[in-house]
Amino acid sequence: MRLPAPRRITVAQVLPGLAAAAVTAVILGISFERSGDVGAVVSFYTSFLTVAALLAIISLGLNIQWGYTGVFNFGVAAFFLVGAYTAAIVTKAPATAGFENYVGGFGEDLNVVPALATDQWFPFLVALLASATICGVLAFVLSIPTLRLREDYLAIAMIGVAELLRRITIEEHGLVNGTRALGGIPQPLSGLTSNADYKYIMLALALAALLLVFVALERGVRSPWGRVLRALREDELTTAASGKNVYAFKTQGFVLGAVIMGIGGAMFAFQSRAISPNTFTHFFATFLIWTMLIVGGSGNNRGAVLGAYVVWGFWQATQLIQTYDLPSVIALRISFIRDLTLGALIVIVLLLMPRGLLPEERRVSIWAERQVRRLRRPPRDGPDAPAAPAAADEAA
Amino acid sequence: MATIEAGRERFRAALRDYQRAAGGFLTGAGLWLLIGLFFVWAFFQHRDALVTGLVTGSVFALGAIGITLIYGILKFGHFAHGDSMMLSAYLAFFLVSGVIVGERQDTQALPVNLGDLPGAGERIWEFSFGYGLLLAMAAAAVIMAGVFIALDRAVYRPLRRRRSGIVIFSIASLGLALVIRSLMLIFWGADPRSYTRGFRSSFDLLGTRVLYDQLFIFCMAMLLMAAVYLLLYRTKLGKAMRAMADNPDLARISGINTEQIVLWTWGVAGALVAVAGVMLALQAQLKPEIGFIVLLPLFAAAIVGGIGSPHGALLGGLIVGAVQEVAVSTDFPLLGEVSPGYKFSIAFIVLIVILLVRPRGLFGAKQ
After folding, report:
1. If you count residue pairs, one on A and one on B, with CB atoms under 8 Å apart, how many are there?
2. Residue B105 — left, alpha, or beta (φ > 0 → left; ψ -120 to 50 → alpha)?
3. The CATH number of the domain where B92 resides is what?
4. Which domain, by its residues, includes B83?
C-alpha cells in the first residue's frame, strides 16, 4: 500500500502569511517600543489599518483594470483625486470664508429628513455615489480615444490625465481651493461617538466598504463576465473570434475599476479630512498603488488586499523609524530611501516573483469550481448519481 | 426582420464610408496643412514663444528619439527615460562642479572636479559655459550608455528570456524610474540647481531675442539627430537595427546577433539621453521632479512623429515644443490666458488629438 506523499510546504506558500505577519510585528513592535502604552499602539494600529483598507480598495480597482482586464492604467491618481475631491465638495458646507474658495458644498441641503439623523449618513452615500459616477463617466470618456490603441498608449495618456487634473486643482483657485488644501471634510456617523473614539467607527466603515467591494468583485470575476475579461487579457484576437465584443468588455473593466477607485478616493477624503493637490502626486497616488498590486499579486483580489497591507505597512514602518535618533545622513533622506526601496521592490518582484505574493489562481470561476467538486465527489449508487459532465463549453 | 437588418447594415456602411472620407482628409493632407498653418501663424503672432518652443522642442526631439529607438527595437515604452535624462543632467553637474549634498542637506563640493581644469569655467564664445561642461556631458554620455547596458543585463534581459509581455517591461522601467528619481534626491537634494550663474548673452533674430545658449542647444540637437539618422540609414549596424525593428524573428534567422543589437540600442539611447538631459537642464534648470513629467512631451513627440521613425521624432518634438510654448502665451477666446503651469498638460492634449485623428503618427508605418 502506498501512502500519499507528505505535503511539502514550499516557501511560496508561507511567504504571504510571513510578509503580513512581519509587517504587523514591525508596526506593533516599534509603536509599542516607542510609546510603551498599549492604548497608543491600538490607536496607531487602528488608523494604520483604516488607511490600508482604503488603499486596498483602490488597489482592488486597479486589479480589475490591470489584473483582470489587462488595461494598463498609469494614472490611478486621476480617479483617486476625482473621487476624493467629489466627495469633499458634495459633503462640505458651501464656502463662506473669503480665503476658502470651492464649488459645490451640498452637505446641508442633503439633510433631507431631520428625524432619521440623515445628516449623519445620507450626504455621504450621495457623495460615494457621485464619486463613483463621475469617475465612471471620466473613465468612459477616456476609454474612447485610448482603449482601442496599444496598451502603453493608454498608460501614457493616463499619466497625462492625472497630471492635467492635478494641475487643474492647483491652478484653478476657485475650484477646490488650490494648494491651500480643502480641509474640514465632514465624516460619516461622526455624531455617534466622541472625537477620540471616532477612528474605530471609521475603521469599521473602511473595512465594511473593503469587504463589500471585495465580495462584489470576487462574484464578478468568477462569473462568465469575469472569464471574458481574463480571456481578452490573454488574447484579444481569440476572444473576438469567439464572438465577444472585446472593446465593450475592456471598457466595462476599465470603467468598473475607475468606479471602485472613486469610491476608495471618497472614503480616503472622509478619513483624512483634508486633501490638497499634494496628496495626489504621481508617486503616492499611482505608483504606490502599483507597487501594492505587483507585490501582492495582480489577478488575485486577495493579493491586491495583501499587497496594500504589506506595502502600506512598509511605508508606515519607515515613518516610525524616524522617531528614533538616526544619523542625520539617513534621517534627512528617509523618505527618499523609502521611495528607492519601493521602486526597487517593483523590479525585484517582477524579476524573482513575477506573480506576486499571492499568484493568480488557475481557476477563477464559480462554475468551474462546481464542476470540479462534482467530479471529485465519490460516485453514489442510484439513478441520480451525477455522471461526469460532458465537456460543456463554458457558457460565458 | 431581414430587411431591417439589411437596412441597418447599409446605413452602417454609408456611415463608415463617410467617416473614411472625412477622416481621410483630417488624417492626411489636412493634418499637414494644419501643422503648416500653425507654424506660419505662430511665426507672425508669437515669434518669441515659437523660438523658445523650437529650442525646447529640439530637446524633446533628442529625448523622443531614444524613446522611439527603444520602442522600435525592444517594443516597449521606456518610462524611465525622463528620469534618466534628469539623472544624466545631475551627473554632468556633479562632474563639472563636484557638488553633492552633505550630511545635513548642505551643499558640499568635492575638491576634485572637471571645473577645476585650467580655463574649464571660462565662457566659450558667447555661451554661458566653458569646455568643462562639454567634457562633463561627454563623460555623462559614456556613463549613461554603460548604465543602460547594465540595466538591460540586470533587468530587461531576464524579462526578455522569460518572454514577458511588453507591459511588464514598462512596469519594470517605471520601477527603475522611481529608483533613479530617489537616487537624485538622495545625492543632490530637491532644491533646483543650474549649470551657470549670471548673465546670458543674446542676439537678435528677426526681432526676437535669442540666447546664444539656445542656439547651442538647437544646433547640438540637430547635429545629433543627423548623426542618428546617418547611423540608422548609412551603417551596417543601423541596417541591422532597422531590420530588428521590422521583425525580430526574421532578423535573427538572417544571422543578425539580436542581443548585440539590443546592447547597441541601449548604448546609443543612453548617450542620447545624457546629451538631452544636459540640454534640458541648460535651457531650464536641474530639478528631480521634472524628470518624470517630461515623459509627457517626450512620448507625445514620439507618438506624433510615429513610433520608430527618427525624423518623425524630430518633427514631433518641434511640434510639441512649439505648441506648448505658443499655447501658454496665447489669449484663447473662451479659456482666456492659459497658466504656464499647464505647459506639460498641453503636450498631453496634443497627444490625445493625434491619437484620435491619426494614431500611427505622422511618419508611422500603416498597421
Report:
1. 128
2. left
3. 1.10.3470
4. 43-357
